[in-house]
Amino acid sequence: MPAQAFRQLTESWHTDTVLLAPEAPPALREAEVERLLAGWSEPHRRYHDARHLREVLGAVEELAAAGETDAVGARLARVAGWYHDLAYDPQAAAGSNEHRSATLARDHLNALGVAQGTVDVVEALILMTVDHDPDGEHPAMASRRHTAAVLHDADLWILSAPDPRYREYAGQVRDEYAHVPDDLFVRGRAAVLSGFAQRPELYRTAHARTHWEPRARANVTAELARLEA
Q1: CB atoms within 10 A of CB 119
Q2: Closest CA to 56 of 35, 89, 29, 83
Q3: Which residues 6+ apart lie within 8 Å of 91 measured at CB?
Q4: CA-closest candidate to residue 46, choices 101, 88, 4, 12
């Protein structure tokens, strides 16, 4: 990823965390963002890398600009975005990466001095990505349903990407699961995509349903056809 993109990510991190952890020493916030970017740059990542992080944060910004959440909610969604795939092992058991990422977020944000209520919300947002159910019963989410919907949609923005990017993403997912035989991968990938295709609505925010959903459904349908060919 270009150096400028890393600088933009770093600036975004500092803009948010100086408000969430105003008493944290600048050196501590800098060390944390360096640790985060190192995690997102691990060599085994193909899709779940710093580019995915940038796309998620960019999608949050688009949704916030459309009025889908307030400034506080957008900040919480961005911070949760920073941590939501921090732990990523393609061979881990289902849900393990998300739970590990949520634990890392809690530990690291506590170390920065972020308020406990905020840490609870960020943790709940990350755990929501296990099954992408923003209506989950975690108590910390009760007052932040709009924020959960924004992170849900931002994490799934890739489904609505322009065709070249979507095809690149599909190939990157296959690369991350290179250890899985072709027949098993096709079966598993088709099950995931079919689950999305069968949802009455792919996205939870009005903006994403209007502007992203038609292209997302076309992308998912086309990939399923390629898998079945």
Answers
A1: 20
A2: 83
A3: 179
A4: 88
Average pLDDT on 211-222 reads: 98
Mark which of 100, 131, 155 sits at the end of a domain: 155
Last-in-domain residue among 123, 155, 187: 155
| Residue 162 pLDDT grade (very low, low, confident, very high; cuts 50, 70, 90) | very high
CA 213 and chain centroid, separation: 17
CA 207 to chain centre: 18
The number of distinct structural domains making up the chain is 2
The answer to whether the CB of 136 falls within 8 A of the CB of 128 is yes
Report percent pLDDT > 90 for the chain. Answer: 90
What is the residue-wise DSSP string for 138-156? -GGGTT-HHHHHHHHHHHT
What's at 111, amino acid-wise?
A
Q: Is the pTM of this model over 0.90?
A: yes
Largest CA distance in the chain: 57
End-to-end CA distance of the chain: 34
Q: Which two tokens stand for residue 88?
A: 């990523």
